[in-house]
Amino acid sequence: MTGTAARNATTESVAAICDRVRDAAARRLQLRVVGSGTWLDAGRPAVQAESISTRDTSGILSYVPGDLTMTAGAGTTLAEVRDATAEHGQWLALDPYGSDDGTLGATLATASCGPLATAFGTPRDLALGFEFVTGKGVIARGGGRVVKNVAGFDLTRLFIGSWGTLGVITEVTLRLHAKPPCDETFAIALHDKADVARAREVLRAAPFIPYACEIVNGPLARQLVGRDELTALFRLGGNDESLLAQRSTLATLGDVSAADSSIWTKLRQCEPAGALVFRLSNLPSEVGRTWNEANAIADSCTGTLIHCAPSRGVVRCIVPATDTNVAWLNRAFRSPMVSTRIGERLPPELWPAISPPPTADALSAGIKRTFDPQRILNVGIRGESA
Amino acid sequence: MTTATTGNTLPNTADSRIDQALANRLAAIVGEKRVLYRPSELLTYTSDGLPSYFKQPGIAVFPGTRDEVIAVVRELAPREIPFVARGAGTGLSGGALADGVVLIGLNRLNHILSVDPDNGTAVVEPGVVNARLSRAVAHHGLYYAPDPSSQTACTIGGNVAENAGGPHCLKYGVTTNHILALTVLLASGEVVKLGNAVGERDGYDLVGAFVGSEGCFGIALDVTVRLSRNPEAVRTVLADFMSMDSAARAVSAIVATGIVPAALEMIDQPTIRAVESSIYAAGYPTDAAAALLIELDGAAAGLERDVSTVEKLCADNGARTVRIARDDVERARLWQGRKKAFGAMGRISSHLVIQDAVVPRTRLPEVLAQIHEIGERNRVQICNVFHAGDGNLHPNIPYDASDADESARVHAAMREIMSACVDAGGTITGEHGVGLDKLPYMEKIFSNDSLATMCALREVFDPHHRSNPGKVVPVHSCREWHGAPNARGTLA
Questions:
Q1: Rounded to an integer, what distance in angstroms lies between the CA atom of residue B113 and that of residue B110?
Q2: Residues 6 or more apart from B59 whose CB is under 8 A from it?
Q3: Can you say how many angstroms the Cα of residue B27 is from the centroid of all Cα atoms in its chain?
Q4: How many CB atoms lie within 10 A of CB A252?
Q5: Size of interface A-B (CB pairs under 8 A)
Q6: Are residues A157 and B209, on separate chains, in Cβ contact within 8 Å?
Q7: N or C: which end of chain B has fewer CB within 10 A?
């Protein structure tokens, strides 16, 4: 469903969400905001609550390819956006971990991104505006539908990454990109862990930014490219002359071998069910050290998959969910680490260990009180007490 | 400042809290020479880069250190005295002005505190001038990307407050895309750290909320910015057209290719003529209806291919000539004409109104035609010089403010232009901010509920609206937050 039909249906759905939130606020009934329901085990443990779904707000409401923007209901899936934009040689350059069955609302609410963040940034760089229903049941908007806009306070950035604790996102406007003439993926086998820092140095000195660069550890490389060794995966975009030069620069890291573009989908979906997932981050110049911190954990947790975006300084760890691994991580997280630690999917007992609640400061608490005064939306998911 | 009797009211305000005793206490913090209150001393601080707004501060105070700024704000807090922070005063929205406030000038906080060339970041005080930061890091092969036209004078603190843009924001993003962390002084006098300069941000994006808050959320004491690497190669193209429409169509064609120019600017004939008759003459053809200034940058390999594509698209859409700057001197000259265009308009008339609306890029040809028609009908001269690549229009009207009839026609034309842009699906400001100038238009694009929500956010940072009072959200909208929500309307 697109255009006017989608808009009419979405309007009704938003009104229903609004009524539901007002009713819940009046009765102080807690709600759990749900998109496709693919990520319900992510984030800190939310209190048991009735679900409020955004799926009925799905559909592309406005898409003028020449504007390189799209407005869609929050329940629209990434797959729907991918298919609609591909017809016009465009894309939403956002590839969060998980599948394209995830919704725009959930992706933005959790500020989720993937390998393409190296070149295109995070959802905060791609969202232009949106509509939401606050915890008071008020329908409001931030931002707009054009690519440049400073009218009003930036509610868009505030809501992205708020994990549904400030309001239910019902509609989003996104910046799109035209697909490049050439889009190429290849792999380079690295020699040892020192090459992680070296890769970052090569990228820093290069006159271009690859669309994506992810360094993957041996177990993950085995799944993606069929060999158990530290490997750098690159995705480059541009004209053919530009790609030739980019490839030649990156070849200083090691032997280039062709790789299928499907490895990016495999990387996004490599998490086994119930895996323990978290990220470590620090300055890009410290990426070698951050990688080592991640590997120190992996050494004691068999089968850990690790990958990192060297120019972003972010290392992501996917640890098999065994009792032994949970116990080990509980100890590891309680010992000093240089990196900033951010949990994605962890059992309840690991959240207090990995990092303090990120919204415990007075300003964040004040913002929560303002947007959700009855404390009914996604309570607990940011670590605030129920 | 000369010491006077405690309790005396100052000449510029009826607010009994802003008196000689306060001036004395502020002088004790920053030194007597750094406190101004006589009307003649304050004249500079009654307006900003837009000459059409005048507001009279009660006192202007110029702290020289971060501790002095904190002490000044803590002096004001117990008495709930409103204040306005100000950088270079180059803003174009009437943003750093208010009647009867204490104006806190931050230009003396102009130190670059640290530079991390390896990670491409710097920590700066709010009074650091935008272009000076780029000069200071140039030897590392780095620069600060957001480049408002006033960059040789405007400050990073002001840029943060307004979420400033500039021609090169088409490719590199606006200020908010380049700010990693902030230390902020709230109106209460409390100092808070926002963001994470050394890793990912978790939690609410308080940095994102603060950038562009137009001084209403507090004062940035230091700013951690992201620096960009100088491009390996740059090509600057000037294409001239015999109609605005064909130039606008060339813009659409370029944007659709997927090539993202570093900048894609349009300059119309009245602007070209103003520039060419000024000291900023850039060699633009004065008989052209419009010119496009297009810059492509990045890796040298493959760049010429993109330049050729752009040249061809310009030609296909009716460009009369397409010229590529031969060297840095010619490139700088072409850019000087563009960046000093507002100044050149001073040759036409004593006053100038400047708009900053944004429209969807496919609507540019139609909206430009509407703007032309509005100008003709209201008998005003509109000079268009703007960021065509992202649809950010700057229709400017030079006029004589002492001519009441002309002033009325100018303001009527401005209102009509704003309506045309909003009706086309656009917004009222792309980079200059709301300030006082766009305040009446906020209700055209946001519902009362949206405005009340914004106001409620402001109150988390500044519950009593003391930090730059009366900006961004119309005052009456703020009264509605605690009331019952409105039904869903047609407005945003």
A1: 9
A2: B10, B12, B18, B22, B23, B26, B35, B36, B37, B102, B103
A3: 31
A4: 12
A5: 248
A6: yes
A7: N
* Nearest-by-Cβ selection for A314 from B119, B200, B303: B200
Find the residue in B nearest to A134 (Cα). Answer: B453
**Would you write out chain A's pLDDT as a tens digit for each of its 386 residues?**
667 777 777 778 999 999 999 999 999 999 999 998 888 889 999 998 999 999 999 999 999 999 999 999 999 999 999 999 999 999 999 999 999 999 999 999 999 999 999 999 999 999 999 999 999 999 999 999 999 999 999 999 999 999 999 999 999 999 999 999 999 999 999 989 999 999 999 999 999 999 999 999 999 999 999 999 999 999 999 999 999 999 999 999 999 999 999 999 999 999 998 999 999 999 999 999 999 999 998 888 989 999 999 999 999 999 999 999 999 999 999 988 899 999 999 999 999 999 999 998 999 999 999 999 999 999 999 987 65
Structure tokens, B408: 């009325």
CB B479 within 8 A of CB A2: no
Can you tell me the distance from the alpha carbon of A318 to that of A97, in angstroms, rounded to the nearest whole number?
12
Interface pTM, i.e. ipTM: 0.97
Which of B204, B454, B488 is the closest to A152 by Cβ? Answer: B454
Q: Where do the H-state alpha helices sit in B43-114?
A: 66-76
Residue with tokens 């994506």: A212
Q: Looking at residue A271, what DSSP letter applies?
A: P
Q: Do residues A156 and A213 touch, judged by C-beta distance below 8 A? A: no
What's the predicted TM-score (pTM) here? 0.95
According to DSSP H, which parts of chain A are helical? 3-27, 78-86, 104-109, 117-120, 123-126, 155-159, 194-205, 218-225, 240-250, 262-268, 287-298, 323-334, 351-354, 362-371
Chain-centre distance for alpha carbon A373 = 27
Q: Rounded CA gap, A83 and A80, in Å? A: 5
> Which of the residues B170, B200, B206, B317 would you substitute to probe the A interface, choosing the one with the greatest number of A C-beta atoms within 10 Å?
B200
